[in-house]
Amino acid sequence: MAEKIYATGRRKASVAKVWLTPGSGKITVNGLSLDAWLGGLEAKKLRVKQPLTITKQDENVDIVATTTGGGFGGQADALRHGISRALVAFNPELKTVLKPEGMMTRDARVVERKKPGKRKARRSRQFSKR
User: Fold this and answer.
1) Per-residue pLDDT reduced to its tens digit, 7-63
2) Distances from the Cα of 42 to the Cαs of 15, 16, 46, 48, 60, in angstroms?
3) Which of 20, 37, 94, 95: CA 20 to 30 A from 54?
């Protein structure tokens, strides 16, 4: 049996667990195909496949992933990060291709917490002079 490579990707509140094996280019997320999982969200499908197309591995590896937390956008970006990390574990020379494209960096931007006395994180109530 071919070796399985595991990697974890994160974005916002989402976590993607990715298993990469040599294969034919099939992507399965949460037990569904990529098309069934993301439906008509074509831009997010392209973002998920971006590390594979940049490294020209889209027909050489199979990906099985599970995602939790957040929404489809955060999960798609977490999946992209996890696929990038798995590809580098699969072939370390691919890091020189993926790193300049920003695929290896975990996007640390998360939602700021709500503060007491405010309506949102920074938004105050409307000032009334009288």
Assistant:
1) 999 999 999 999 999 999 899 999 999 999 998 899 999 999 999 999 999 899 999
2) 21, 19, 6, 10, 22
3) 37
- The amino acid sitting at 95 is K
Query: Can you give the length of the chain in residues?
Result: 130
Amino acid at 3: E
The separation between CA 67 and the C-alpha centre of its own chain, rounded to angstroms, equals: 9
Q: Is residue 18 within 8 Å of residue 83, measured between CB atoms?
A: yes
One-letter amino acid for residue 91 of the chain: N
3-state secondary structure the chain: CCCCEEEEEEECCEEEEEEEEECCCCEEECCEEHHHHHCCCHHHHHHHHHHHHHHCCCCCEEEEEEEECCCHHHHHHHHHHHHHHHHHHHCHHHHHHHCCCCCCCCCCCCCCCCCCCCCCCCCCCCCCCC
